[in-house]
Amino acid sequence: MKLLLLINAHSGVKNSKANLLSVIDIFCRHGYDVSAYVTQKRNDAYEYLSKNRVKYDVVCVFGGDGTMNEVTNALMRKEHKPLLGYFPSGTMNDFGSNFELGTDFIKIAERICEGNVRKYDVGQFNGRYFNYVAAFGAMCDVPFTTKRDAKEALGNIAYIMEGISKLPDIRMHKVRYTIGSRTYKKDVLFGLIYSGNRVAGMELEDKKRSRIDDGYFNVLIVEYVPTIFNAPDLLSTILQQDKFIHRYRTKAISLEFEDDIVWTLDGEEAKVKDKVDITIINKALSLLA
């Protein structure tokens, strides 16, 4: 069986791939014909898989959620979709947490060799794909504007520092969104459309209620409240949060904006001029986990 290792050497914190040789040894002992490619630039994993005509049985990703997003976008456009393995070595690793992968690469390799397949949902965002989250609004650009060397040195703290620096620039977006037969118009601070239960290191849903293979998105829309940054009104605003937070479960959502807006798909940038249609593809890809 042919197995490809796609390695993003720059993702996550330093020394996060220290057991890479041990992982290769495990795969070889289980009879895999192992090849490896180290990505050289942003979107290189996508380009390599798109151009490579070899039909791999398994593609294993050493990287963060952004690298996994590139791989998903390449495979969703191919007729032959190999099984996937994922060694989360990024800063947040939200996608891997949905499968309780952890960061012990030796255990992950052994689980891959056991051959247990778990299918999972993939989101479609206009012409692109994402694994677990599409987000817009306040500070949603933090994952891709935070400098790589800061992430390598500081981990999650780098995101926090970048987020704080963006507080003065927070603004609202006028959004019209449609779910099913209902349309809503709101001034929005930020919005999340996500599969599974975890975003930005936080568990937002009960694992029993929301899974990455259940065929549904969770939608979280938070309205813009001008007084939220006013200290005297902050407590009352928090106490009334149910009034400003809107949750939905759906297979599809359409959103329209009055201005250009920047989204993040699994931590990667996506620019939208005025409209986006998001749908879920149930159990589109398969992970060995």
Give a summary of the structure in a few sentences.
The protein is of the alpha+beta class.
Question: What descriptors fit this protein?
Answer:
single chain, 289 residues, alpha+beta, Rossmann fold, Tumour Suppressor Smad4, 2 domains, eleven-stranded antiparallel sheet, four-stranded parallel sheet, 10 helices, 17 strands
Question: Helices and strands in order, then pairings?
Answer:
Elements: E1 2-7, H1 20-29, E2 33-38, H2 44-51, E3 58-63, H3 65-75, E4 83-88, H4 94-97, H5 105-114, E5 117-125, E6 128-130, E7 133-137, H6 142-145, H7 148-154, H8 156-165, E8 173-179, E9 182-194, E10 198-199, E11 202-203, E12 217-223, H9 231-239, H10 241-244, E13 245-250, E14 252-257, E15 261-265, E16 268-272, E17 275-288
Parallel strand pairs: 1-2, 1-3, 3-4
Antiparallel strand pairs: 5-6, 5-17, 7-9, 7-15, 8-9, 8-14, 9-12, 10-11, 12-13, 14-17, 15-16
Helix pairs in contact: 1-5, 2-3, 7-8
Describe it.
This protein has 289 residues and is of the alpha+beta class. The chain folds into two domains: 2-116, Probable inorganic polyphosphate/atp-NAD kinase, domain 1 (Rossmann fold), CATH 3.40.50; 129-283, Sandwich (Tumour Suppressor Smad4). It is 27% helix and 37% strand. The protein has ten helices and 17 strands. It has helices spanning 20-29, 44-51, 65-75, 94-97, 105-114, 142-145, 148-154, 156-165, 231-239, 241-244, and strands spanning 2-7, 33-38, 58-63, 83-88, 117-125, 128-130, 133-137, 173-179, 182-194, 198-199, 202-203, 217-223, 245-250, 252-257, 261-265, 268-272, 275-288. Strands 5, 6, 7, 8, 9, 12, 13, 14, 15, 16 and 17 form an eleven-stranded antiparallel beta sheet that branches. A four-stranded parallel beta sheet has the order 2-1-3-4, sandwiched between helices. Strands 10-11 form a two-stranded antiparallel ribbon. α3 links the parallel β3 (58-63) and β4 (83-88). α1 packs parallel to α5 (105-114) and α7 (148-154) packs across α8 (156-165). It starts with a strand and ends with a strand. Residues 142-168 and 231-236 have low confidence and may be disordered.
